[in-house]
Specification:
InterPro entries: KH_dom-like_a/b, KH_dom_type_2, KH_sf_prok-type, KhpB, R3H_dom, R3H_dom_sf
Order of helices and strands: HEEHHEHEHEE
Number of helices: 5
CATH class of the largest domain: Alpha Beta
Number of domains: 2
Distance between the termini: 57 Å
Pfam family, one: R3H
Helix content: 40-55%
Protein name: R3H domain-containing protein
Strand content: 15-25%
CATH architecture of the largest domain: 2-Layer Sandwich
Mean pLDDT: 92
Organism: Candidatus Zambryskibacteria bacterium CG10_big_fil_rev_8_21_14_0_10_42_12
CATH superfamily of the largest domain: K homology (KH) domain
Keywords: RNA-binding
Low-confidence stretches: 152-158
Length: 158
Amino acid sequence: MDKKEIIKKTIENTLTHLSIPYTSIFFDESPLLWVTVETNDSAILIGRGGDTIRALNQLVQKIVSKVCGEEISLTIDVNGYKKKEKDRIIQKAKLLGDRAKNFRVNINLEPMSAYERLIIHEYFSEDPLIQTESAGEGRDRHVVLKYTESVSSDISSL
């Protein structure tokens, strides 16, 4: 069995053992392991503030990593919840990034999960005017958007 089959079987078995109904499980076309679970009762799978889906994600990652003998990173989405959450995080980061550029200041974002911080780091990775840095400890861990003057280093002009 390949990784995707192991992941799908693990999710199916876990949901069945928990008596959580689902209609389908499929992988999105992405280089990342992004799995979507469709269900008629998304609230039970997502949980308050996404706690249940995060726990399911961690559980499946641990099981699959042990079975495969290597660390596996994956994202489980339920009825598009994670995609909407990612879009919301990017919109907020874009707004705050624009503010950092306009006022030429650093901005501390609110504490967030490792997944949310990763989204922000990836979003600004190609932006020459904003550098990101994670700061803080534990539940206070957050991203700092650091405004940087763009310095063009054209060697041919030396």
